[in-house]
Amino acid sequence: MHGSLMLDIAGTWLTAEDRHLLRQPEVGGLILFARNIESPRQVEELCRAIRAVRPDLLLAVDQEGGRVQRLRQGFVRLPAMRELARCTDAPRLAEACGWVMASEVLAVGLDFSFAPVLDLDHQRSAVVGARAFEGDPQVAVTLIDAFIRGMHAAGMAATGKHFPGHGWAEADSHVAIPVDERSLDELRRCDLIPFMALSGTLDAIMPAHVIYPQVDEQPAGFSRRWLQDILRNELGFKGVIFSDDLSMAGAHVAGDAAQRIESALGAGCDMGLVCNDRGAAELALTALQRLKVTPSTALAGMRGRAGCPADYKQNPRWLDAIGALKAADLID
């Protein structure tokens, strides 16, 4: 079986226990949260320390903009993506946001941000809300495509989330098990449109911890129907599939952490995330060791492709992007 584990650490530097875990070949990635971040220099030093232990490890963060932005002090405070739609030059500004975000994340030694959000804003889901670019799927596709174009220009792979769409289900999958009662035909006419339109552009996709009972009784991230029949075969997606955090309440239907990661990989995920619970991460790691997993070769494509030079803020593109975002009153 192909697969690997992405986990997290507790602080702003590596402990001996962290180093031991990161040396395990089944661990393929590490995600940073706000608790791990003090300043650009500190993050850069932490990434360097991690690379000294495992040069091949994927280093990720959630840096969408708006309220989901882990890198804050010393970084541009990007707007929530929903704010872009009100601007007259929204696609250009979306591309600028994607490029600025990716440049800053790459500059401190991280590989990628789990972005962009492809969910639609149906004015129903508080956990999605302004994280979505739009409620209209065609407008959303235009803006998301531009954002990805900016990310790619900076050298960052793009991860679309949360397949096949988390914007309708009202429950928050961090603390509950959301259910979306719509049919597959209804989803194809609406929430699936961004994923269908951008399946050849995205480098990775993260499925939702949402149950769509008219399609499958399992949440999308544990469903071969969703990940194999629909995402891989129908949409023709060839990139990486990351599970959403398997410690979230929406994932608990699959059992304990060992059962969750085995189910996620069995459904088609290339890497399972187990965050904010070291005991669960160790249980998942033990399961992967028992299963004798090997990492997917596709994961190499998620490495940052062009580290930004130290003086990237003098780049004319940076100055133009920041100027445009300020003129549109999207950043301070």
Automatic annotation (TrEMBL):
Keyword field: Cell cycle, Cell division, Cell shape, Cell wall biogenesis/degradation, Cytoplasm, Glycosidase, Hydrolase, Peptidoglycan synthesis
Alphabetical list of InterPro entries matching this protein: Beta_hexosaminidase_bac, GH, Glyco_hydro_3_AS, Glyco_hydro_3_N, Glyco_hydro_3_N_sf, NagZ_Beta-hexosaminidase
Gene3D superfamilies reported in the protein's UniProt record: Glycoside hydrolase, family 3, N-terminal domain
Coiled coil: none
Recorded metabolic or biological pathway in which this protein acts: Cell wall biogenesis; peptidoglycan recycling
Entry-linked PANTHER family: BETA-HEXOSAMINIDASE, BETA-HEXOSAMINIDASE-RELATED
Protein name: Beta-hexosaminidase
Species, as recorded: Stutzerimonas stutzeri (strain ATCC 17588 / DSM 5190 / CCUG 11256 / JCM 5965 / LMG 11199 / NBRC 14165 / NCIMB 11358 / Stanier 221)
